[in-house]
Amino acid sequence: MLDAVPTVPVDLIGVLKSVAVRQMKEDVGLEIQQFIRCSVMIELVLEVEVASSSKVSYMGKLCVGVGLVTTLSLVSCEVEEGDTRFRFGQLYLDRLTEQSVSERNFLEVSYEKLFTIPDTTDMFLYELAPASVDSLGNIYLIDWGIDKVIKFSPSGEYLVTYGESGTGEGPGEFLNITDFEVTSDSIVYVVDTYGRKVVSFSIDGTFLQEKKLKHQPFGYQIAATGQEYTVFSNGPTLLESRLGDEVFEIISLSDLVDEGKEGFMEFTGLFGGNIVTYYGNVVYVFVHYPLILKYEPDGTLVYARTTLGYKDDFKEPEVETLMLGGMPATRNVARAYHTGYATVENDKIFVLGISPSEAPDKTIVIDVYDVRTGDYQHSMFPPEDGLFYTIYQNGRIYQAKDSIVVAWKVVY
User: Fold this and answer.
1) Residue 1 to residues 34, 39, 94, 236: CA-CA distances in angstroms?
2) DSSP string over 208-269
3) 206-209 long-range contacts, CB within 8 A, separation 24+
4) What value does the mean pLDDT take over residues 389-402?
5) In terms of DSSP bridges, do strands 281-286 and 217-222 run parallel, antiparallel, or are they unpaired?
6) Average pLDDT, the chain
7) Do 219 and 231 form a contact (C-beta atoms < 8 A)?
């Protein structure tokens, strides 16, 4: 990666902007963000997708005395022979397309409160998060207070619990539940990060088997094609796909700029996110990056799209080292752009954005994108603000609030 030049003469910046980039900026709304030092003559070829899906190419030669070449937004070019990838923050991407709009388009919606879970004083829940809604409308909640998954009917009546009481080591026991999946053949999968396992149950709550993993799983989804997708919170792989014995590494540490730095594993938490499947493909929504990535099962990138709001104050995610009780520790000081929840329905992906610039008094916004292309569609505010555990499914919104979950009907 080329080093950024600390300062550049103002007259050269003006020339470069006016001669090389002016027309491109008018066409696709891109801006010069930084200048890069190079010691050879290079040919600059920029092929950029515009809103009409056509492509505009810009070609030119930049001779280096001071060696200047522009970059697009937060993306910088590579100079290694045969490497055409772009850099976005600490990620290498094969390509990246920004949204054609920069401001949210809000839908006017209202909400009708349907019911609250639990609806009886006979049942007490502890620390809830909406997990999933199956094709029949049944609701699955993770209760982190007891490390179990609890199933309710579409109208909120209790049905069954997945998970056994114990130390977390026995069959069907959990140490730390982080994700959950229900397949079309009515198999329930529960992810235990600390236990490094994925546990399966029958739909009636009967323990079936557990699959032990070498590294800690954080997210887990199974596509309609049977493809398994796993997000790891440690290890050499961030996201992999598996079908039988065939395994593909979709996002690895080699896709991260600072792979070789000392203590890099502490930084992998910066790349956490949520996965959802769309037919056989997987969509990854980062928490600390304003990005949505869509991949085929073999790791081929379908698209990489920015999400709304990042241009305001994007800062590359960082981990800070501090001392706690005389021992070194780290903490994440990165801004969160999205929560850890996203859902897909009717060719749309519903992503929870954080701190929308259009409404400084709001904490959460639901942004809707076309899952096929990553194009932004519209936004809406949830019924109650400040509740990060919110999902949209089947025309309803489910929000966790302390030890209850409230179901709302969306009225368009």
Assistant:
1) 13, 13, 15, 21
2) EEEEE-SS-EEEEEE-TTS-EEEEESSSSEEEEEEETTEEEEEEEGGGBTTTTSTTGGGGGG
3) 207/164, 207/171, 207/172
4) 89
5) unpaired
6) 78
7) yes
CA 298 to chain centre: 19
CB atoms within 10 A of CB 330: 14
Confidence of residue 262 (pLDDT cuts 50, 70, 90): very low
- CA atoms of 187 and 208, how far apart (whole Å): 9
pTM value is 0.78
Give the mean pLDDT of 336-350: 92
| pLDDT range class, residue 409, cuts 50, 70, 90 | very high
Residue 231 CA to residue 32 CA, distance in Å, equals: 34
The answer for residues whose C-beta is within 8 angstroms of residue 370's C-beta and 6 or more apart is: 347, 348, 349, 377
The Cα–Cα gap between 389 and 314 comes to: 24
Name residue 277's amino acid: T
| Residues, the chain | 412
pLDDT tens, position by position, 283-312: 999 998 999 999 999 999 999 999 987 765
